[in-house]
Amino acid sequence: MSLYLKALGHLPTGNQHINAAMEVFVKAAIMPGFSELIIIVNPTKEVTREKLLSITMPWLYAPWPDAQRKGIAEIEVEGDTLRVLLAELSEQYKQANVDFELINPRIDDLDSDYDVLVNGKNYVTLPNGLDAKLRDDDEVKVKILWRWDG
Amino acid sequence: MLDQSELARYNRQLVIPDFGEEGQRKLKSARILIVGVGGLGCASATYLTAAGVGHVTLADFDIVELSDLNRQILYWEEDIGEKKVMAAQRKLSKLNPAVEITPIFTKITEENVFSIIDGSQVVVDGLDNMATRLVINSACVKQKIPYIYGGVSRLRGMTTTIIPGKTPCLACVYPEGVRGLGVLGITPALIANLQALEAIKLIIGHSPSLAGRLLLFNGDDMKFRIYDIKRNESCKICSSVSLH
Known about the structure:
Oligomer: heterodimer
Shape of chain A: globular
CATH topology of chain B: Rossmann fold
Shape of chain B: globular
CATH superfamily of chain B: NAD(P)-binding Rossmann-like Domain
Distance between the termini of chain A: 48 Å
Order of helices and strands of chain A: HEEEHEEEEE
Strand content of chain A: 25-35%
Number of helices of chain A: 2
């Protein structure tokens, strides 16, 4: 049985990015990887955890504890841009008491603790950056960045 | 036994109920290796020496440069051009002459890493790149030596305590990141002192708080976050290592 979770939170009003995308919905299959989230947008094929058997950050399941058995959570997002998807993810983590604020409100851009790839390309190379529209089967990866300087 | 001078020097920590003279004696007989004596290593070395760790080994191959002085607090202008490990040894020996400071001026490689970590009870990370951290991580896992990772950039930092056979190692998580982003000196000092605290707890037999937990510090919004992390069952470095 597949798990289906509808977005629980309401995104804040007054955000032009979100308002512009109202009444457009995408479904997203979410798979925690090693230290990353892998998200398949409107998947047209079955999403599996092939090659991702191990999970080193179990807290990535926090908003969707029932999904741990299957390894994949499914959510519905109101809007079709990368920004809306990331905002919705952060909101669902927040409701699960996990601080996973992907978009830094101070800079209105991706926080420096993370990196985001869409189909293997860094989001900054997309024509509209965070406001890029997502398409069916797009693979979005949210990576947690480690710190290497000393 | 602690002598009168030691009882006076360490008085403030001796009165901590679950530390006491027994904890101080364990520190006195401890051997800690600090790999990399930059922003992180200067701070952890200072506080571990001040706390009375008996033997501190410093490994680094850099010389002191002017651009180090915003964060590497063991070095002053007069030390520019000197080997970091030698300048650090001199300062630390003045801070606490009872502590044996051993400088190793070398670049850590897969070839020499085992001789460098040999005999250490704990390895404290003061490095500035992923590649050398993975070399240290692998060697510590093989030798079953606890390794306390710390890394920083800008106003952010993170740390976790790796107990071979028990917690995830650095290779478990396929870590990715970027170096050379800049560092505000306070950030490595803060992370390094958390590392030093974890090292002291390991030495005196208290459970390290960050074993299997990744602490992230964000100096922009002054938040600390702690995430649980698990071993990667198929990790090429640590999956075959167990406690028994």
